[in-house]
Write a sequence for this structure.
């Protein structure tokens, strides 16, 4: 049976190479290496309060992983997270694990007082779990976006969200122009 959990659940060491393998299979060796480094960096340099990990696993096998890092809108009182990166084990893709893991994570984050979730990816896929395209003046990105149509978000609280005030900052591992 597939389990959905928060935290590293004993898989900490496996997580960077897991992303590496998934992205090597989908986008090639260079992207796989880049994702391994990014995830290592995120896990090593983010403050504990600023990074959340959610996993799908079956027994000893890691099947899916999502990292959420804090996005700081210093002029806005709301708690905002960035959902990235997301990976599902290559031979288990298209079986619903990604969407189930995203829903599990968003529900848990909502329970922890997170108000708004943002991602930067394919609106066609992430739209299935409630993410909608956002204008950059609704939620200012921390860096210049090379693909503005991939800037997507959703409120985790009731009702329509007001725009997020002011500029944003991301955790150090994401604070690199080439990642945006
Ligand atoms: C993208 C990814 C996380 C999706 O997880 P998954 O478990 O395979 O997806 P699910 O089974 O939950 O969802 C499948 C659905 O999304 C669709 N879908 C999957 N990838 C998609 C994409 N890139 N664009 C549009 N739709 C997509 C499928 O057609 C399917 O649609 P359906 O529900 O109507 O049948 C996974 O395929 C993956 O790890 N890919 C490689 C790494 C990657 O690209 N990560 C995302 C960027 S950070």
């Amino acid at each position: 049976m597939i389990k959905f959990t928060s935290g590293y659940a004993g898989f900490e060491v496996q997580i960077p190479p897991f992303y590496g393998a998934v992205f090597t299979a989908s986008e090639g060796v260079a992207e796989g290496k880049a994702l391994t480094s990014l995830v290592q960096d995120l896990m090593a340099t983010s403050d504990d309060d600023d990074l959340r990990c959610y996993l799908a696993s079956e027994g000893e096998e890691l099947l899916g992983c999502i990292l959420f890092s804090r996005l700081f809108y210093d002029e806005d009182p709301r708690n905002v997270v960035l959902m990235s990166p997301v990976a599902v084990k290559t031979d288990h893709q298209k079986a619903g694990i990604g969407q189930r893991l995203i829903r599990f994570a968003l529900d848990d984050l909502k329970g922890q007082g997170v108000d708004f979730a943002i991602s930067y990816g394919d609106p066609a896929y992430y739209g299935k779990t409630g993410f909608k395209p956002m204008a950059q003046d609704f939620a200012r990105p921390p860096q210049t976006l090379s693909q503005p149509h991939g800037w997507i978000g959703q409120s985790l609280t009731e009702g329509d969200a007001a725009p997020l005030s002011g500029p944003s900052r991301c955790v150090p591992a994401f604070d690199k122009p080439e990642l945006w």
About this structure: Helices lie at 15-27, 29-45, 97-111, 123-126. Residues 22-23, 26, 84-88, 93-99, 121-122, 124-125, 128 surround coenzyme A (CB under 6 Å). The longest helix spans residues 29-45. The longest strand covers residues 61-71.
